[in-house]
Design brief:
By secondary structure, this protein is α/β, with parallel strands linked by helices. Helices cover 38% and strands 15% of the residues. The protein has one domain: Rossmann fold.
Length: 230
């Protein structure tokens, strides 16, 4: 188990306008209300492609994963013989880019909401499967060479997060989980004010203790107020 940062947030905070509008995130946080959170938690069009107050404000393909996948491919030694699973894959951008970058590789995505699947890119539609809950993942032990879960499991309560991490550990040879964390109350409050769907948000030390207790063998990265630039 190790902390591995492949640079997603450093890049997105500086270079991607699509997910970083001119309105600063801190100002946006002040405008979001319980109504925006209710709308966001439907995880449908309004969350992905509606008003920025309700979610992403337009979740569109921009090829960003091709930048970070170079590090991921090298780190986890992925090749045409590898089998990869993206948990909470949304519209499948990670799946698309990894498939193109490593010809012959087997990449699959699972998503627990129907809207992003219906609106995913046509070329990878057959590679994404709907699952009512990520707690219902069923694959054989060490079935995947690499399992990726980027900011997708923390919307579940702690009981379910524990179950999902156990499942990731069971089905993967190597894995990487990104979850929000904080080191002080200021960071915690800033993130809670910002997030629309966050449920399980722990102190960095609490995550580490949880991983150790569960025997999680994969890698991880802590997102949160700092990485989001709050």
């Amino acid at each position: 188990m190790a902390y591995f940062d492949y640079g997603y947030f450093k890049y997105s905070n500086k270079n991607i306008k699509q997910f970083n509008p001119k309105v600063e995130r801190t100002k946006l946080s002040n405008k979001r209300s319980i109504i925006n959170r209710i709308i966001a938690n439907q995880f449908d069009k309004e969350f992905y492609d509606g008003d920025r107050l309700n979610g992403y404000g337009g979740f569109k393909y921009d090829g960003r994963w091709k930048i970070f996948l170079k590090k991921i491919i090298y780190k986890y030694k992925l090749n045409k013989h590898s089998k990869v699973l993206d948990i909470g894959c949304k519209k499948g951008f990670f799946v698309k880019d990894l498939t193109e970058m490593v010809p012959g590789i087997k990449v699959f995505g699972i998503e627990d909401h129907k809207y992003p699947i219906k609106n995913c890119l046509k070329e990878i539609k057959t590679k994404i499967n709907y699952m009512e809950s990520l707690t219902k993942i069923k694959f054989k032990k060490k079935n995947f060479d690499f399992v990726h879960a980027h900011n997708s499991i923390y919307v579940y309560n702690l009981k379910d997060v524990i179950k999902i991490i156990k499942l990731i550990n069971h089905i993967s040879k190597k894995s990487h989980i990104t979850i929000p964390a904080y080191v002080n109350d200021q960071q915690r409050l800033k993130f809670l004010k910002w997030t629309l769907t966050g449920t399980t948000i722990l102190h960095e030390n609490e995550w580490k203790k949880l991983f150790k207790y569960l025997g999680y063998e994969g890698d991880y990265y802590f997102s949160g107020a700092k990485s989001f630039g709050l």
